[in-house]
Amino acid sequence: MASTRKARVPMREQTRLINECRQSGMSDADWCRENDIAVSTFYNWVSRCRKAAANQIPAANYGHPPVPRPKQDVVPIDIVPDYISERHTASQMQKIVP
User: Fold this and answer.
1) Contact between residue 18 and residue 42 where contact means Cβ atoms under 8 Å apart
2) Model pTM?
3) Which helix (H) or strand (E) holds 86?
4) Where on the phi/psi map is residue 25: left (φ > 0), alpha (ψ -120 to 50), or beta?
5) b/e for 72-95, b at 16 or more Cβ within 10 A?
6) Is 44 within the bounds of a domain?
């Protein structure tokens, strides 16, 4: 038994069918059964149409160009524990602070 494949439905037609389904007041599954469309196919159309629509949305610029961030220098620091006082000698500090 040979399987017959249905012709590919253009995206414009997919969008029209999705809108028709959503405006029908029926559940997606009921509408798909009534219109001889597999529910999985219908949801694939919905996914593809959403992705296509999202790709058409331009990035927001809020009416002004983006401000470049200044480069921050990385500066090494030595952290000395609070318990070291000025009374400690350099040799004592080397034992305490590696």
Assistant:
1) yes
2) 0.55
3) none
4) left
5) eeeeeeeeeeeeeeeeeeeeeeee
6) yes
**72 belongs to a structural domain:** no
Calpha distance 22→2 (Å, rounded): 34
**Domain count for the chain:** 1
Query: pLDDT tens digits for 36-95?
Result: 999 999 999 999 999 998 887 777 666 777 778 888 888 888 877 666 566 666 666 666
- d(CA 89, CA 51) in angstroms, rounded, equals 68
Q: Domain containing 31: what range?
A: 11-55
Q: Which residues contact 48 (CB under 8 A, 6 or more apart)?
A: 11, 14
Does residue 70 lie within any of the structural domains?
Answer: no
38 Cβ contact partners less than 8 Å away, ≥ 6 residues apart = 32
